[in-house]
């Protein structure tokens, strides 16, 4: 991986912004069913990745400078730029967390008559246990903690 990235340009502010904007667009497109938005977002994210893996540093630096010049002309965004660098990963992480929770909630609702749900005390994973079996010993698939369940 080090060898692969050696001559590559890497991520800059433009890449980060495009990546976040792309993922946000794709997420909105996905949630609203607007496939054009989803594809535009994915395309933006792919271009961001292509920039990061590019070996043409000079061109990428020019693009980033152009982007920064453009953004600094917008007063509020220019101010926010300074604080933005530290937290590029947060929005995507929160979004995938919300998606997982929504999926879990849907599964729990669908299986509410046949399964009992409990949280693993060690790692917090939601475990499904068949209902009506009395006392069970359940092993968490994620961290292998054994716990006793009553169903
Ligand atoms: Zn666990």
Structure in a nutshell:
The protein is built from 6 helices and 4 strands. It has helices spanning 2-5, 13-32, 35-52, 57-72, 75-84, 90-110; strands at residues 115-119, 126-130, 135-139, 146-150. The longest helix has 21 residues, at 90-110.
Question: Keywords, please?
Answer:
151 residues; alpha+beta; 2 domains; two-stranded antiparallel ribbon; two-stranded antiparallel sheet; 6 helices; 4 strands; binds zinc ion
Provide an overview of this structure.
This protein has helices at residues 2-5, 13-32, 35-52, 57-72, 75-84, 90-110, and strands at 115-119, 126-130, 135-139, 146-150. It folds into 2 domains: 2-102, no CATH class; 111-150, no CATH class. The chain has 151 residues and is α+β, with helices and mostly antiparallel strands. Helix 2 (13-32) packs antiparallel against helix 3. The model has no long low-confidence stretch (mean pLDDT 85). 59% of the residues lie in helices and 13% in strands. A two-stranded antiparallel sheet has the order 1-2. Zinc ion (ZN) is lined by residues 120, 122-123, 125, 140, 142-143, 145.
